[in-house]
Amino acid sequence: MAIAFESLYSDIAGRSGKLTVGKKVIRTPALLPVINPHLQLVTPKEMEKMGVEALITNAYIFSQSKQFRDRALAEGLHKVLDFNGVIMTDSGSFQLSVYGQVSITNTETLSFQRDIGSDIWVPLDIPTSPNSDRATTESELAITMQRLKEAKDVFGPDAPLAGPVQGGIFEDLRERAGKEVTDLGFSFCPVGAVVPLMENYRYRDLVSVVMAAKRTLSPSACIHLFGAGHPSMFALATAMGCDLFDSAAYALYAKDGRYMTPHGSFRIGELIDLPCACSVCRSHTAEELRDAKDRERLLALHNLHVTLAEIARIRQAIFDGTLWELVDERCRAHPQLLAGYRALLDHAPALAQHDRVSKRRFFYRGDESCRRTEVLRYQQNLPRVAVGKTVLVAFEGGIRDEFETTLFFKPPFGPYPRELKETFPIGPCEIPEWDEVMVRKGLEGIRILREKNPTSTFTVSCQKRWEPVVRNVLGDIEVRHDAV
Ligand code: GUN
Ligand code: ZN
User: Fold this and answer.
1) Of the bound ligands, which one is closest to the alpha carbon of residue 254?
2) What is the pLDDT of residues 135-145, one digit of tens each?
3) CA nearest 248: which of 447, 479, 90?
């Protein structure tokens, strides 16, 4: 297999691993900066020194360029760009989505990508606009699928081909596309046509289409989110299982005088100080950066540093098992990101199936935390807790001898036996002072255990203030206030 992905660590549906392309290996998640050969604010060589292991460039631009076409064919892309890492080429589909047509066929662009020595080739898929109706989306998807099949037929099963997943905003079409791409044997699968969603802050729709595609794509496929450039959404996308991002945003924002942070962007004129640790920001004042002759380049460098640092942070979060905390933090930056985060939490049942068993910690960060995969999973496993005929759930205090079983209580998870006190998630879970939302969620756990053990009698021991909540969730359960 020319392209192979191996996951080494995972958290939620996010993975951190290795992508092997021919003889080259890159770490994931990864950012592939977009290179326009005519306009290099930061050179590929400089990027290599910044730790960039892969980049993406547009084969269509090369094929149409007097300056670069023949050189690329004669010397190869790596020589022309002076970059030793992985180079992925896009086909011209982006031009297709902007200008409506391109003067190249599917097999022509793929042959050209092969002939210039690209490491990953993209067929001429059709990025359907999210505003297209179902009939249009379906017929464009059919053309995309024909071209992917043609790519496999002409270039063989081991060619380093990407298989883009299209289907507009229709979940069932994204599912169909994911299945067909998988059946054709693609192991590198970009999710396409999401740029307009991200440009318009439609993160709910983004979650809907990526999750739909992921339902039918192989878990061993490497997933590239086409055109995802702003670092504030990388954590959210990674949590869904996206492994690669490509960004022209670092350069486009720079040209537009915009300064990226992991939480959002500023116009450079708005900043009175530079809140970043990169070399550009530590060697310039905000005013110097604003007035610098090479402002575009400096901003591009800064934007790239910020983007790469976010990827590093995500890899660490996956290793630690703290990706939900990072998603929560990032998604507070914009109301529409919060909407996307909440939409992702709606998928907790699917995500919980693959979420890892133990993590470094669980920080409670508000109501959303109650809907996290770890809470769901804990409560799914609760029926396995063995109890006697009389069960006390003690919110406070220790074992009471008059009960056959004493369980303790940790919101938002629920009841737990003493043996689980130090284990994940009960032990490493840090919560603030109890509030009604988390207690209510924990009480659901008691309800589950009670339903599993209908012949046992359950008693809750808690402070008076919790009794109405306990009654509300558990009805006629016996409640006492005997904590010492
Ligand atoms: N760049 C951004 N979106 C897309 C897409 O859907 N397909 C291709 N080939 N390139 C893209
Ligand atoms: Zn900086």
Assistant:
1) 2
2) 999 999 999 99
3) 90
CATH number at residue 299: 3.20.20.105
Q: Which of 11, 70, 82, 90 is catalytic?
A: 90
User: Do 272 and 217 sit in the same domain of this protein?
Assistant: yes
Using CB distances shorter than 6 Å, the residues near ligand 1 are: 90-91, 93-94, 122, 125, 127, 164, 192-193, 195, 226-227
Query: Which of 348, 374, 408 corresponds to the end of one domain?
Result: 348
Clarify whether 90 is annotated catalytic.
Answer: yes
C-alpha of residue 94 to centroid of ligand 2, in Å: 30
Alpha helix positions (H), 77-121: 77-81, 93-99, 106-115
By mean pLDDT, which of 87-101, 220-234, 383-397 is the weakest? 87-101
Query: Above 80 in pLDDT, residue 484?
Result: no
Ligand 2 center to residue 299 CA distance, Å?
8
CA distances from 40 to 45, 251, 333 (A): 11, 9, 30
CATH code for position 439: 3.40.50
pLDDT digits (tens, 9 = 90+) for 144-202: 999 999 999 999 999 999 999 999 999 999 999 999 999 999 999 999 999 999 999 99
Residues 25 and 63 in one domain: yes
Give yes or no: residues 26 and 174 share one domain.
Answer: yes
Overall number of domains in the chain: 2
pLDDT band of residue 1 (cuts 50, 70, 90) is: low
List, in order, residues 6 or more apart from 199 with CB less than 8 Å away. none
Sign of CA dihedral 415, 420, 424, 427: positive
Ligand closest to 268 (CA) is: 2
* pLDDT tens digits along 6-53: 999 999 999 999 999 999 999 999 999 999 999 999 999 999 999 999
Closest CA to 128 of 34, 203, 191: 191
Q: What's the whole-number mean pLDDT along residues 341-353?
A: 97
